Amino acid sequence: NAGVTQTPKFQVLKTGQSMTLQCAQDMNHEYMSWYRQDPGMGLRLIHYSVGAGITDQGEVPNGYNVSRSTTEDFPLRLLSAAPSQTSVYFCASSTHGDWGYTFGSGTRLTVV
Amino acid sequence: GIQVEQSPPDLILQEGANSTLRCNFSDSVNNLQWFHQNPWGQLINLFYIPSGTKQNGRLSATTVATERYSLLYISSSQTTDSGVYFCAVEDNQGGKLIFGQGTELSVKP
Lengths: 112, 109
Description:
Chain A is mostly beta strands. Helix content of chain A is 0%, strand content 50%. Chain B has strands at 4-7, 10-14, 19-25, 31-37, 43-48, 52-56, 59-64, 69-74, 83-90, 98-99, 103-108.
């Protein structure tokens, strides 16, 4: 049971490049979500999903796309990277119960 | 949407001291969690506590859902307790968390 796995852990992009941040969970959780954390700030919600085939926008969705074709995977796509997207990205999953949300270890992204 | 406010924003303690961190939220919630972000950036789940009181070693938490606040108590603090403590809530729609701005704790030896 690996929990929530994020890849890559570190990435440097040039402005205008595209990439996909991967997130996978093996706990059969129906909820998955993406957050970004900027220096000295809390985590802000980018996109989330309440089940396969269902996604919705969070507080800061601009510049990011998501899809949820399977229960296990919830990739985050940057279509044209900008320096303002330099941040640490966290993925989380959850289900109804008494444990709450489990977070991945994060992806540190730098856009130059 | 729900607003989450944490206080204090910063806290400096001597090793062995006790502390209380507070989280206020603006509406009813399904879920409330406390996290510790360590110096390496990992988010460690401390408590899932939508209501009531829980204890885990030197840490305990209480949520009074009817009054929309939660408290995290740290007793006999250690230098390894340093880091940022986040409160996060899930609204009644479910599926995502809304985070407070965090309390940065520094425990001096």
